[in-house]
Each structure stands twice: as structure tokens, then as C-alpha cells.
Description:
Blueprint: H1 5-12, H2 15-22, H3 30-33, H4 41-58, H5 66-76, H6 81-85, H7 90-115, E1 118-126, E2 132-142, E3 147-157, H8 172-184, E4 193-197, H9 202-230
Parallel strand pairs: 1-4
Antiparallel strand pairs: 1-2, 2-3
Helix pairs in contact: 4-7, 8-9
Amino acid sequence: MIADRVVIKRHGEGAKHVKKTTAVPGQSSIATTFEKAKQSDDEKCKASEIKLAAFMAEHKISLRAMDHLIDLLPIMFPDSQIAKNMKMKRTKCQAIINSILGESEKQDLYADLKEHKFSVMIDESTDIGAVKTMCVVVRYYCAIKGQIVSRFWDLIQIHGDEISATVAAATAQHLFEAEIKSFEENSIPTENIIGFGSDGCETVGRVLLDWKIHAQHLDSSKLQRGMRENV
């Protein structure tokens, strides 16, 4: 077989070749296969709003500034259609931070705590409405940042509606159970907890004792499981 231009051209004009090539009319060319899908102006606008909301949250800028900044952007960038389409003032900015950025950060934190060991730090406080709360912070090594980080975990209301009036005191047992429940509700393994920190008040000191007992229970459970596996 001689593979010259005449033979290739004749093969291309053959009925068998024409039939196979017309069977897939919607097939894209190899040049367009690796091209990234272009974002619409609406998608670009949404992405820009999320990035701007993240900037406001990261640098702790008052969201009231958005009421003026969003009107300034199209004046500063008159040639940008994205700047003209952005309609995000403080109410929308707050909603994006709470519902989109906050939820995304929360899921990332859940994934980290399920895979890595971490320590727990708590501090009890009473707000202006005389409601007792307990702030919980977790501290662990973040592989992405390459350093130890402290992340807010939860703000637990100590006396919820389910707590009866007879349990009015913020006892050490109640604080301990509230912490454990907070982690278990989000499927965080409590055996990943390797440390505990708090201030020096008596009640929180008893919480530390409960944590030590809990850690000893986990260690004994692991020991028993290992002994059963080796029998």
C-alpha cells in the first residue's frame, strides 16, 4: 500500500469513511476539548461579590462601608461590566458571610478535626442579657498553613430551653457534657482530643478533671480492644 496524498484523498472520499465521520456530527474538535468553560457575566459577578465579602470579613471591616463602596466601584471602573452589575450592600454581604463563607469554613474545620489531633480551650462568660455561654476554641496543626492554628468551634448556651430550673448552676458535669455533645453532633471523634485548656476557676477546673477521666476511659478502651485483637 502506497500512502501518498492521492491514496489518502481517495480514502477520505470513500463511502465507508464518509459514513463513519457523519455518524458523530456533534463531536468537538481537539482544539476545543481542553478549553475551559467561559464564565457568564452573572457568574463572574457572583464570584466577585463572594471575594469582596471574604475580604471584608478577613480584615474585620465594618459592613456599613459596603453601602458606599458598592456605589463607588462602577465610578472607579466605568469600563467594567462586573462592577456595574454588583449589587451587594451590607445586608447581602452579611448573608454571604454567614451562609456561604461561614458554612464553607465550617465544613473545612470538620474535615480537619476528623483527621487530626487537636486541643480544646474553653472560657465561660455571661453576656449583657445575663445569659451564660461557653466559648469553645480548638487548636491544631494545619497542614495547609504549616503552623499551629486556633479556630473558633462553638458558642454554647449553658442554660438552654431543655435545661430545667432545678439545674440552674453551670456545674462542671453540665459543661463537660455540653462540650462532648457539641463534638459528637458533628461526628468529630472525641479520641482526637489530646489537650484541654481553660482559666483557673474552680468549676472549669472540675471540667479538666472530667476530661482526664474521659481520656483515661478512651485509653483503657483502646487497650482492651488491642488485647482482644491479639488473643
